[in-house]
């Protein structure tokens, strides 16, 4: 079919489809967590704006209906949805910040519901989900990143670096059922923000606008860090995303949280003694402890000589060996406030990788939770 004919078909579909105001699903009032300000009252519904978004949005909706029925048109349909999102952003389309705050509060409840999972918190695995969904970005091709949430699809969901993240995706699927209007990309990155903030870390500026894509937009394997590698590998991976040495070291501090599992990555153990609290202990331990190679049948990793209860990966230890990395790691070990500031900035950027600026529903990012 020629493009002109396709466009004519789209126009006919749009004109034949009756417009109607789309009602937002009812949102259950979540209990506001401790240390969180009262959720602001939602603004008066802007549903009437559905009818005033103009031909761009109407055409986008019509094209999406067409694209949904044609495998060959799905990528084009996703592109039009991106344009529709930009049009919505231009008129301050609902949902409001108050609506996203309710999602945040629900995620915060999920984080604390872990009980017997790992160290009693789902926070670390939710942060890893947001990180891995965003860290596939390639600045040269403009592919990957958080925009399409392609980890929902095989084979990306089965990439080695994503082992075990089905736990986090399943948790967020339950939240998605309660708030079906939020995109997966927005949901997952908001979960990463909640994880950092609810575990005592800095505020992470965040804004919505990601759209859901298709399996054809899934990224190839090998775009996420391989923990067995050294400095050159880290630079290849992070430079591809657009980060520099200082930002590589700042992002590595996320290893203050969580632990490795032999049935996932093959590695085993936590990086710090407080794996559910965001601190600069990761950097302090790198320099304060004596690290030796662990004698076991698993992949190469280090353990602290004193207690043998902590571990570091080769990609962690290289921060103390590479001259450029070391100066930043040392600075963060000595000043937690400095790391919090840099970590907040770089994580906010990480979570926006691959998202066209025009899609965001607000020009300035929000601070969710307690302010």
TrEMBL record:
<keyword id="KW-0479">Metal-binding</keyword>
<dbReference type="InterPro" id="IPR019793">
    <property type="entry name" value="Peroxidases_heam-ligand_BS"/>
</dbReference>
<dbReference type="GO" id="GO:0046872">
    <property type="term" value="F:metal ion binding"/>
</dbReference>
<keyword id="KW-0496">Mitochondrion</keyword>
<comment type="similarity">
    <text>Belongs to the peroxidase family. Cytochrome c peroxidase subfamily.</text>
</comment>
<dbReference type="Pfam" id="PF00141">
    <property type="entry name" value="peroxidase"/>
</dbReference>
<dbReference type="GO" id="GO:0004130">
    <property type="term" value="F:cytochrome-c peroxidase activity"/>
</dbReference>
<feature type="domain" description="Plant heme peroxidase family profile">
    <location>
        <begin position="182"/>
        <end position="371"/>
    </location>
</feature>
<dbReference type="GO" id="GO:0005758">
    <property type="term" value="C:mitochondrial intermembrane space"/>
</dbReference>
<keyword id="KW-0812">Transmembrane</keyword>
<dbReference type="GO" id="GO:0034599">
    <property type="term" value="P:cellular response to oxidative stress"/>
</dbReference>
<keyword id="KW-0349">Heme</keyword>
<keyword id="KW-0472">Membrane</keyword>
<comment type="function">
    <text>Destroys radicals which are normally produced within the cells and which are toxic to biological systems.</text>
</comment>
<keyword id="KW-0560">Oxidoreductase</keyword>
<keyword id="KW-0408">Iron</keyword>
<dbReference type="GO" id="GO:0020037">
    <property type="term" value="F:heme binding"/>
</dbReference>
<dbReference type="InterPro" id="IPR044831">
    <property type="entry name" value="Ccp1-like"/>
</dbReference>
<dbReference type="GO" id="GO:0005759">
    <property type="term" value="C:mitochondrial matrix"/>
</dbReference>
<dbReference type="InterPro" id="IPR010255">
    <property type="entry name" value="Haem_peroxidase_sf"/>
</dbReference>
<keyword id="KW-0809">Transit peptide</keyword>
<dbReference type="GO" id="GO:0042744">
    <property type="term" value="P:hydrogen peroxide catabolic process"/>
</dbReference>
<keyword id="KW-1133">Transmembrane helix</keyword>
<keyword id="KW-0575">Peroxidase</keyword>
<dbReference type="GO" id="GO:0000302">
    <property type="term" value="P:response to reactive oxygen species"/>
</dbReference>
<protein>
    <recommendedName>
        <fullName>Peroxidase</fullName>
        <ecNumber>1.11.1.-</ecNumber>
    </recommendedName>
</protein>
<feature type="transmembrane region" description="Helical">
    <location>
        <begin position="47"/>
        <end position="67"/>
    </location>
</feature>
<dbReference type="InterPro" id="IPR019794">
    <property type="entry name" value="Peroxidases_AS"/>
</dbReference>
<dbReference type="InterPro" id="IPR002016">
    <property type="entry name" value="Haem_peroxidase"/>
</dbReference>
<dbReference type="InterPro" id="IPR002207">
    <property type="entry name" value="Peroxidase_I"/>
</dbReference>
């Amino acid at each position: 079919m020629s493009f002109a004919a396709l466009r004519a078909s789209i126009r006919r579909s749009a004109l034949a489809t009756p417009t109607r105001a789309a009602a937002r699903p009812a949102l259950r009032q979540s209990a506001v967590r401790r240390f969180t300000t009262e959720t602001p009252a939602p603004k008066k519904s802007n549903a009437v704006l559905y009818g005033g978004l103009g031909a761009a949005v109407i055409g986008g909706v019509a094209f999406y209906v067409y694209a949904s029925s044609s495998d060959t048109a799905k990528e084009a349909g996703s592109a039009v949805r991106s344009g529709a999102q930009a049009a919505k952003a231009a008129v301050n389309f609902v949902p409001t910040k108050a609506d996203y705050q309710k999602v945040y509060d629900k995620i915060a409840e999920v984080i604390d519901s872990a009980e017997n999972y790992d160290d009693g918190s789902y926070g670390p695995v939710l942060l890893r989900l947001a990180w891995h969904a965003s860290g596939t970005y390639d600045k040269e091709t403009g592919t990957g990143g958080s925009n399409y949430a392609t980890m929902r699809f095989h084979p990306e969901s089965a990439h080695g670096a994503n082992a075990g993240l089905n736990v986090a995706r399943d948790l967020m699927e339950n939240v998605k059922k309660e708030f079906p209007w939020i995109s997966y990309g927005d949901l997952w990155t908001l979960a990463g923000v909640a994880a950092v903030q609810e575990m005592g870390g800095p505020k992470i500026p965040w804004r919505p606008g990601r759209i859901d894509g298709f399996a054809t937009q899934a990224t190839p394997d090998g775009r996420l860090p391989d923990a067995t590698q050294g400095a050159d590998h880290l630079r290849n991976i992070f430079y591809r995303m657009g980060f520099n040495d200082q930002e590589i070291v700042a992002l590595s501090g996320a290893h203050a949280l969580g632990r490795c599992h032999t049935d996932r990555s093959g590695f085993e153990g936590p990086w710090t003694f407080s794996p559910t609290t965001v601190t600069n202990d990761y950097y302090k331990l790198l320099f304060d402890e004596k690290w030796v190679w662990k004698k076991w049948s698993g992949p190469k990793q280090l353990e602290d000589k004193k207690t043998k209860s902590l571990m570091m990966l080769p990609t962690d230890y290289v921060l103390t060996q590479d001259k450029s990395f070391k100066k930043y790691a040392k600075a963060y070990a000595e000043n937690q406030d400095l790391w919090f500031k840099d970590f907040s900035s770089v994580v906010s950027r990480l979570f926006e990788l691959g998202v066209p600026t025009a899609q965001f529903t607000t020009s300035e990012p929000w601070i969710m939770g307690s302010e």
